Amino acid sequence: MRLSEILFKQSRMLYFAVFLVSLLFFSMVLVLLINVKQANLETHSTNNFKGKNLYQLSDNLYNDRETAYFSNSNSYTILRDFSNQLAQNTSLNYYNSIWQPIEIADFKGDVHFDAYYENGSNQQPYEVKGKTYRAIKSLQLNAKVFELNHIEAEEGTLFSNNDFIFSNDDSSSIPVLLGSDYAGIYKPGDTIHILYYQRPYTGNVVGILSPSQKIITANDPERLLDRYIVLPSMSFDNHVNVQAGRIFFKASLLSKINGIIITDLSPIELNKVMSTISNETHFNDFDIIGANSIAIKLLINMTEANRSLLLITAAISMIVVLLLFLWIISVVIRSNSSVYKVFLISGASFDQLYASTRNQFLLWVGISSFLPLFPLLILVSNPLYFVINYLLIDVVLCACFVIAIHLFIKRTFTRLNIVQQLKG
Amino acid sequence: MKLNIKTKLYQTNYILILICFLSIVTSWLISYFDYVNMVNNGYINKKSISFRLEEMNKPFNPNLSGYILMQYDNERLSPKYVYINGDVKLPPIIKNNNFNIDKDIDSHAAIVGASASIESIPNGYTITGTFDTSHSYRLSSDIWLLSRIEELHLDKGHYFIFTSPSSSPEDKLSALMNGNPYEVLSMQNYGTYSLASNSLFQNILWALYLFFLLIALAHTINGHRKDGKLITVLYYSGFSTYRLIWIMIKLRLFSFMLISIFLVISCVLLNRYIYSLWDTSWLLYSFCFIGFQSLSIIIASISTSCQYSVKKEGHRF
C-alpha cells in the first residue's frame, strides 16, 4: 500500500516509539496474567484447608507408660498397623509434617542451616568415626503434605510415590529435597551422609525447591522450606522387620502417629472412625485434640485478601495504561494531520486513510505483542495456558485499538476543512 | 517584547501533570504494599534487623528516636517487650478508652492480638488495645508489652528485632547499641512477603513507574520539537539564544514544577492526616520523578533552542 509506505516514511520515529510503548504494554499484560495465575494458585492451595475441621492426634506414651508399652513384643507391629490405617483412610486426610533435625556429616552449608539457629541454642558439631556431624534443620513429610500444599522444585524433581515406602533392600539410601537456600551448595545428584534417628543413610539429592515454598503445619501456619532438608516420611509395609534397629523404628513410628487430621467430619463422627481403627489395630493410647485452626483461617484470609488487592490494583493500572496508550495513538494520528491533508488534496478517501493508518498500527502493535511470547516459552515450563489466554486478550486489545483508530481518524478528518486548507 | 504564547504551552502541560500524579500514586502504592506486607509479617519490615545480644555492658542510647525495638525470649516469640521511641506509625490498633502512646509506655500497657494467649502477660501490665487485623495471623497471636528503653534488661530475652523508617537502619541500630557488641541473625520473612505473586506485583509497579517516566520524557521531547518553528521565528525576530532558552524554561518548567510541588504537598498532607505509611520512601520516588522531568525539560529547552536558532550556519536576516 503506497499510502502506508509514505505514512511510515514521514514519521519513522513516531512509529518506532509506538512500537516500544506497545512492547512495554504487552509485556506488562503478559506479566500481569502470570501474576494473576500465581495468586490463584496460592489461594487454591490454602483452599484445601478452608472450611475443614482440623484435629491433632497425640499419643500418650510418655515415660513409664512408654516403657510399659514397648515391653510388649507386639508393640511395633501394632503401631505400624495403626499408622498405616490412618494413612489409608480417605475420610481422614492424614497430614503429617515432622520437625526433626537430622545429623549431617561434613555439611557444606553455613550456620543458618543449623537446627537451632533461630533459637540460639546451637549445638556444637561432634565427631564420629572421623566424620564431623552437625544437627541440621529437617522436616519429614508424608505424601498428603505434598498433595495439599503447592510445592515446586526449581531443579530436579519432587519425591515419587515409591519414595514414601520404606524399603528394606535399599535401606541405606533415601531421597532428599533441599530448600532453595541450598542452591549453589548442593545440586541434584549429590549425596549427603546423614544420621536419621541414629540410623546412617546416604541421602540422594533429587531436587532443589523454588524460593519461598511453604507448607501449613499445626505449630506454624507457615513453615518456609528454604532452609530445610526434606525427607519423605516413610510408611512401613507388612514385610518389614521392624524389630531390627529399635531407636529408628520406635522414633519413626511414634512421630508418624502424631499428625493432624483434615476432614469434614464432626468430632462425633471422627470419634467413630477412630474407634473403628483403634479396635482393628488394638491401639488406643492416643488423644484427639483440636488443632490451632484460627491461625490457619487467618492465613487463608490473608492469601485471599492479597489476591483481591492484586486483582483490583492490576485492573485499575491496566485501564490507566490502556488509556495512556490510546492517548499516544491519538497524538501520533494528530501529528500526521499534515500528511493526511496532502493525501486528501491528492484525492485519497477517508476509507483509504483509515485503512492505511490502521494497517500501520496493527503491523507494529501486532509484532510487539508477539515478541513477549518468546521469553515466556523459554522461561516458563508449561506455557500453554498463558499463551492461549494471552492471545485472547491480545485479540480483544487489538480490536479495541482498531475501533479507537477509526474514531481518532474520523475526528481528525472532520476537523480538517479542505477548502480552508486549499485557500491557505 | 511580551509574547502571548502562554496558552498553547500551558495546554500540553496538563498531560505531564497527569503523568506526574500517576507516578506519585504508583510510588505510594509501592510503599503501601510494603506496609501491608509488614503488618502481615507481624510488623516486621524487610529492612528490619534481627540480632542477639549476649551481654549488655552499657545501657542503650535513650536519646535516639524513630524506631521500634522488640525483645523476646528465644523459646517463644510472644509476649514481646516493645520499646517505641519517636513518631513512628503503629500497626492498626483498636484502642480501649484513652490510648496515648507516651502515657501508655510509662504506665506499662499491653497491646494484644485477637487470638493471643492472654495468660502469658506478666503482672503489672494492663491491656489497652487490640490489634485490628483480620489477615495477619502473626499479629493476631502477638502480645506487645510497651516499656521504656531505660527499663530494658537482658533477662527479658536476648533476642531483638529493630525496625526503623530511616533510610539506613543499620546506622541507627549502631547508634542505639552504644557500643554493645551484637550478633546479627538472618531472618526469614513470612506472611505476604513470602508470596511470589506479591513480590512479582511489586516489580510490575516498578515497571509502571518506569513506563510513566518514559512516557513523560517522550512527551517533553515531542512538545519541544513542536516549538522548534516558534523558536526559529523568535530568533529571526532578534531574540538571542540565551533569551530563548530562558523563555522556554520559564514557560515549560515553572508551571510544571509549581503544580507538581503543589501535588506533592497535598499528598504529604493527606499522608500525614488521613492515612500514613511506615516510611516516606514514596516521597523520595516522587521527587526523583519530578527532578528527572525537570532536568529533561531544561535539557530539551537548551537543545531545541540551540538547534532551531543557530541551525546550520546561524544566519539571521
UniProtKB/TrEMBL annotation, chain A:
Keywords: Membrane, Transmembrane, Transmembrane helix. The chain crosses the membrane at residues 12-34, 309-333, 361-381, 387-409. This is MacB-like protein. It comes from Paenibacillus cellulosilyticus.
From TrEMBL, chain B:
It comes from the Bacteria. Keywords: Membrane, Transmembrane, Transmembrane helix. The keyword Transmembrane applies. The chain crosses the membrane at residues 12-33, 200-218, 230-249, 255-275, 282-302. This is MacB-like protein. It comes from Paenibacillus cellulosilyticus.
